[in-house]
Amino acid sequence: MNHMPDADVPPLPDEGQDxxxxxxxxxxxxxxxxxxxxxxxxxxxxxxIPMSAGFGARIHNVDLARLGDDRDAQQTLQAALLExxxxxxxxxxxxxxxxxxxxxxxxALEEFPxxxxxxxxxxxxxRVASRATEGYTGVGRYWHSDGSFRTVPTPMSLWHMExxxxxxxxxxxxxxxxxxxxxxxxxxxQIKGLQTTHRNxxxxxxxxx
Length: 209
Prior knowledge:
two-stranded antiparallel sheet, alpha+beta, 9 strands, 4 helices
């Protein structure tokens, strides 16, 4: 696996250019292009484009349907997730089995009980929809961390969009690590020892170690 220097990387055709924030300067006035090409041993090229929000990256030129056969691509995505915290991978709609196989690259999957609108035979997929006949409705309409109500919180979540509305329907993300780093030291001292209590009586530190 080789990383090409930024100066040798051409812009992606028809995709525009995301600009990553230079954390060493004022992000309100200084932006820089930060695009990497990762050359995999099988000859394919994966593009990693950091997002302008300061975290997260878009990944191009990766076939999620065949990810199970490409160990280099798996390791690259795993490393990118740890580095950027959020990955957005454009591509076609995956069949359930392919979605599960791609998700398993990042770890073991939990299983959910059968319910109306869920996909029979695929308990690893938690389907969310605007109609009850197609999945769970009214899910995540407020800021939250997935699985925080469990004794062992969900370490990561993977979403696969099959359809989107013409207007609205945004899914928003935020970097809580950066939010913590940006707090004044006095505020950190006030909240560091606090705990959260869920309705099912599961308790976690407000600031996870």
